[in-house]
């Protein structure tokens, strides 16, 4: 089993680091899946709806890596699944992000030191002929093939409503305020492009209405036209919004009535799917 | 302000209807007095008074004159109710209180009378937020009977002066630190001393200082106030331009803050504090 990749472009290194820190905010443990075409970060939450993951981030390998080589378990199963602590990886990457002058390259390798490790080798610019290299080892656990099925690509949920969200910053402000009022937040949407986010407590009812949002066109028309809603844990949503340093071009919010809110963050080279299970069946 | 426009609406049914183009002014004033959870709102044809108290010792009130609002409609009799100020402040701040001048949500606030909630409608960039905050029956607010005739000493000064002094106090000092305010027609004229178990420190402000606008003291007054009780006055001090410090014969301290709002309206915030009992002073 082999893996090595090399990043040269500093913007790619920064973007990669932002994604890792987003993942790190959401969970202590994540799964890194490496295939020939893509790199995936997966957070699996036990007890989630239809055993879907909490987060599914898909990174286009070609965008981030200038050199990329992966040899999986076998020819047929040419992929690697690792478990790691994203926080450790994030801390390492963050130190390069701000390094001045910017590093020349970042190599990521799967190595076997005392235990399996993801080794990050950073080449820093140097005035002399000798290169300055910094090596970080992040311990990982390899996931055996019999457990791979747990981390399979999630199916698009059979949602009832779907809208494009307004800029996340706008949503974040509202959600931050609502977070101080309640533990749960309700997302309601209809196919006319209205999204209502609301909280309701003994003391106060607050609802914010976003109108005339774009509505994604999906092949099969399964939106019945009414307003559908799901109530989710506001803290989890807050973590997602707080950690969204990825500046997605589009965010789609799909609502499975009373069961789940599915956020789809689209970016040219990265897609992030976030699954928020409903907290209460209201 | 034209009072004719309200005839178009059905607002006649409500005992209290307020509209403003800039919700941030209301937010700014309410934040300044938000040291306690519950507030009493007193609406009269002249304006809205929001009163916050703690421990029967201190009281802060913000007065929002009717002229501040684009529309202010109040039935002749006074309406009073109690409301959760923390929640009201969060609701007014739902769009994140953009720091850019000119960008502020508009606000419509209605109160339907005894037992009904306070309804707010905030709108910014065609995003609408509805809030319904439960109200409670108002308790009697403290009456300090602070009348102009019993005022013995009076100092008008720029608020920076007190703000800098007040924010440097060590409020968590051991024991129960107190502030002694000495105002006198004779030297040292105006002295603020903090007294704790371990130390005392004096700050003298000369009466001809640039900070002081008016100095009229007729009698030497030396009163002690618990530092912790004065702490909530820092918030209004930071937004005020001028502050009027008065003490009456009983030693009750009244700070009146003059706040110039973004739209050049002048608003007043008052802060009353009871002195420490005479016998505690050695």
TrEMBL record, chain A:
Checking PANTHER family in the record gives: CHECKPOINT PROTEIN (PTHR12900:SF0), MITOTIC AND DNA DAMAGE CHECKPOINT PROTEIN HUS1 (PTHR12900)
What is the designated name of this protein? Checkpoint protein
Say yes or no: keyword Kinase present.
no
Gene Ontology biological-process annotations = double-strand break repair via homologous recombination; meiotic DNA integrity checkpoint signaling; mitotic DNA replication checkpoint signaling; mitotic intra-S DNA damage checkpoint signaling; nucleotide-excision repair; telomere maintenance
Q: Which UniProt keywords apply?
A: Nucleus
Which family is this protein grouped under? Belongs to the HUS1 family.
Q: Which InterPro entries match?
A: HUS1, HUS1/Mec3
Tell me which domain of life the UniProt entry assigns to the organism this sequence originates from: Eukaryota
Q: List the GO terms this entry assigns under cellular component, sorted alphabetically.
A: checkpoint clamp complex; site of double-strand break
Q: Does the keyword Transmembrane apply?
A: no
Q: What is its main location?
A: nucleus
Record's subcellular location: Nucleus
TrEMBL record, chain B:
Q: Which Pfam families match?
A: Rad1 (PF02144)
Q: Where is it predominantly found?
A: nucleus
Q: Which locations, inside or outside the cell, does it occupy?
A: Nucleus
Record CDD domains: PCNA
Sorted alphabetically, the Gene Ontology cellular component annotations on this record are: checkpoint clamp complex
Q: In the UniProt record, does the keyword Transmembrane helix occur?
A: no
User: Which keywords accompany this UniProt record?
Assistant: DNA damage, DNA repair, Nucleus
Gene Ontology BP, a term? DNA repair
Stated family: Belongs to the rad1 family.
Q: What is this protein called?
A: Cell cycle checkpoint protein RAD1-like
* Organism per entry: Homarus americanus
Starting at the broadest rank, the lineage of the source organism is: Eukaryota, Metazoa, Ecdysozoa, Arthropoda, Crustacea
Gene encoding this polypeptide?
A: RAD1-L
């Amino acid at each position: 089993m082999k893996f090595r990749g090399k990043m040269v472009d500093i913007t790619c290194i920064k973007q990669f680091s932002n994604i890792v820190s987003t993942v790190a905010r959401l969970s202590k443990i994540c799964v890194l899946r490496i295939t020939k075409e893509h790199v995936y970060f997966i957070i699996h939450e036990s007890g989630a709806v239809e055993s879907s993951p909490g987060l599914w981030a898909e990174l286009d390998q070609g965008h981030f890596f200038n050199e990329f080589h992966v040899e999986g378990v076998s020819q047929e199963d040419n992929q690697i699944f690792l478990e790691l602590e994203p926080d450790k990886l994030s801390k390492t990457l963050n130190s390069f992000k701000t390094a001045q002058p910017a590093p020349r390259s970042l190599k990521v390798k799967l190595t076997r030191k005392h235990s399996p490790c993801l080794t990050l080798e950073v080449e820093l610019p140097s005035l002399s002929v000798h290169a300055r290299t910094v090596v970080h080892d992040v311990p990982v656990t390899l996931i055996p093939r019999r457990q791979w099925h747990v981390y399979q690509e999630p199916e698009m949920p059979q949602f009832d409503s779907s809208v494009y969200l307004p800029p996340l910053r706008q949503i974040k402000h509202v959600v931050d305020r609502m977070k101080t009022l309640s533990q749960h937040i309700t997302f309601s949407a209809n196919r006319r492009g209205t999204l209502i986010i609301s909280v309701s407590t003994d003391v106060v009812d607050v609802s914010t209405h976003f109108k005339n949002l774009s509505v994604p066109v999906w092949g099969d028309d399964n939106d019945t036209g009414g307003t559908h809603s799901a109530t989710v844990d506001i803290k989890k949503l807050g973590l997602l919004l707080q950690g969204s340093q990825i500046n997605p071009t589009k965010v789609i919010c799909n609502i499975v009535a009373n069961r789940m809110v599915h956020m789809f963050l689209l970016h040219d080279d990265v897609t992030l799917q976030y699954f928020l299970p409903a907290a209460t069946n209201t | 302000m034209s009072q004719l426009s309200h005839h178009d609406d059905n607002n006649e049914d409500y005992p209290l209807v307020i509209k403003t183009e800039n919700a941030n002014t209301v937010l700014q004033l309410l934040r300044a007095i938000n040291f306690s959870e519950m507030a009493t709102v007193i609406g009269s044809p002249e304006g809205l008074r929001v009163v916050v108290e703690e421990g029967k010792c201190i009281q802060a009130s913000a007065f929002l004159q009717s002229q501040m609002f684009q529309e202010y409609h109040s039935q002749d009799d006074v309406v009073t109710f109690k409301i959760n100020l923390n929640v009201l402040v969060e609701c007014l701040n739902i769009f994140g209180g953009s720091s850019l001048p000119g960008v502020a949500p508009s606000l419509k606030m209605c109160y339907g009378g005894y037992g009904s909630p306070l309804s707010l409608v905030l709108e910014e960039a065609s995003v609408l937020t509805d809030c319904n905050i439960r109200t409670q029956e108002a308790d009697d607010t403290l009456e300090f009977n602070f009348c102009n005739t019993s005022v013995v000493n009076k100092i008008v000064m720029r608020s920076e002066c007190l703000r800098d002094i007040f924010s440097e106090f060590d409020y968590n000092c051991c024991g129960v630190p107190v502030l002694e305010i000495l105002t006198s027609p004779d030297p040292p004229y105006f002295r603020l001393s903090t007294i704790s178990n371990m130390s005392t420190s004096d700050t003298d402000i000369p009466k001809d200082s640039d900070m002081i606008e008016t100095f009229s003291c007729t009698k030497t007054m030396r009163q002690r106030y618990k530092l912790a009780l004065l702490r909530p006055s820092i918030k209004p001090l930071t937004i005020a331009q001028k502050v009027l410090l008065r003490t009456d014969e009983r030693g009750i301290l009244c700070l009146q803050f003059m706040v110039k709002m973004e739209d050049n309206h002048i608003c007043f915030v008052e802060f009353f504090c009871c002195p420490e009992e005479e016998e505690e002073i050695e």
